[in-house]
Amino acid sequence: MRRALTVLFVLISAAAHAAGWTIMMHEGRRYVPLEDVTDFYKLNPPDVSGNSFTLTGQGRTIRGSAGSRELLINSVKYILCFDAVSKNAQIYLSAMDVTKIIEPVMRPGKIKNATDVRTVILDPGHGGHDSGARGPLGAEKDAALDVALRAKKILEIAGYSVRLTRATDTFIPLERRPAFANKFPNAIFVSIHFNKSNRIGGTGIETYALAPRGVPSMDEENLSYSDLKEYPGHGKDAENIALATSMHSSMLRHLRLVDRGIKRARFLVIRDARIPAILLEGGFMNHPNDSRQIASTAFRDAFAQAVLEGVNRYKSAVAGQMQYFKPSAVVAATDPTTAPELKPRTPPTPPAPVGSQTDMAQSVNEAAGALSGPRVEN
Ligand SMILES: [Zn+2]
Fold it and tell me: Residue 108: its pLDDT value, please?
């Protein structure tokens, strides 16, 4: 009974928050029309042509299309939680995407309780017997450590306190990395990695933020139990995407590589961090051009510079001092030939005891209903 009351209360709260938004249900999820988004953010009416749409105003240009999960905000690519949908001659975005991407990106200064940044935790991926991705010009663990050490130097000059999860070629178990980071107040966590594709051809940079509760990870179409679990990182959903935005656009400016977008995953290091956390993939170890760049000092210095600029931009964004700019060095199209290499998911945690299949369906609906109403207030 208490559970039923709690659910009812959550639904009523969600409905109250949703006032002013037209909610359309589609595949059990809540969607809102583009017109509501432009009204709310005081943008010009949507410019729709076939399946594509452009929203402009307030220093922003947002482009996307129905049937697609790609959304460009000021030329920075986001992979939406769910496809934009076309229905009854209108285009809709999932309420989850409005709440978890558009809102924190449009108004980072309104993120509640976002703290100032004084400490930056840099996490060079892998180490010791775990080399990470290997390419013709070296191993991921070495490139990641070198970039982190270069970033540390210039972050400190800029006045930040910097802590490294590893400063030498040592193996640090994954769970120790966020555990270490969680000890610091006013801190952010930046994990530095490089990619590898199974086939030759994968190229470009990507930035990962924790997938919000109820959103499938990038490589999954359907929800699984672990997608419904609440992780420590979920307390920072808004900060995570704001940090991913500043960092990814800075990387696009400094590293002349293909933009693979800002994506969602449940990698352990970002999942268990209680401070804003992201994971960067700075190019492919086994791509001819990427690997040449990654091996060069100029690229590693540029990467370090991008980290510093990303931290500065995040800091001013959450302080409400947003600068609008378009990344100047965007290389347009992603490489369509290769799927991004995603780390193997950690073994699924055993689900909380449930009675039947129906319970699973019900909890999916509860998560979708309770979590996806736009909770954006003026
Ligand atoms: Zn890695």
Answer: 93
Instruction: Write down the pTM of the prediction.
Output: 0.82
* Ligand 1 midpoint to CA 301 (Å): 19
The answer to whether residue 264 sits within a structural domain is yes
Whether residues 300 and 152 share a domain: the answer is: yes
Give the per-residue pLDDT at 217. Answer: 78
Number of structural domains found in the chain: 2
Distance 342 CA to ligand 1 centre (A): 9
- Tell me, in angstroms, the distance from the centre of ligand 1 to residue 124's CA: 9
Domain assignment of residue 187, given as a range: 119-318
- Tell me, letter by letter, the H, E, C secondary structure of the chain: CHHHHHHHHHHHHHHHHCCCCCCEEECCEEEEEHHHHHHHCCCCCCEEECCEEEEEECCEEEEEEECCCEEEECCEEEECCCCEEEECCEEEEEHHHHHHHHHHHHCHHHCCCCCCCCEEEEEECCECCECCCEECCEEHHHHHHHHHHHHHHHHHHCCCEEEECCCCCCCCCCCHHHHHHCCCCCEEEEEEEEECCCCCCCCCEEEEEECCCCCCCCCCCCCCHHHHCCCHHHHHHHHHHHHHHHHHHHHHHHCCCEEEEEEEECCHHHHCCCCCEEEEEEEECCCHHHHHHHHCHHHHHHHHHHHHHHHHHHHHHHCCCCCCCCCCCCECCCCCCCCCCCCCCCCCCCCCCCCCHHHHHHHHHHHHHHHHCCCCCC
Has residue 278 been placed in a domain? yes
CA 343 to ligand 1 center in whole angstroms = 8
Same domain, 299 and 182: yes
Q: Which residues of the chain have pLDDT under 70?
A: 1-19, 218-222, 322-378
> Would 272 be classed as within a structural domain?
yes
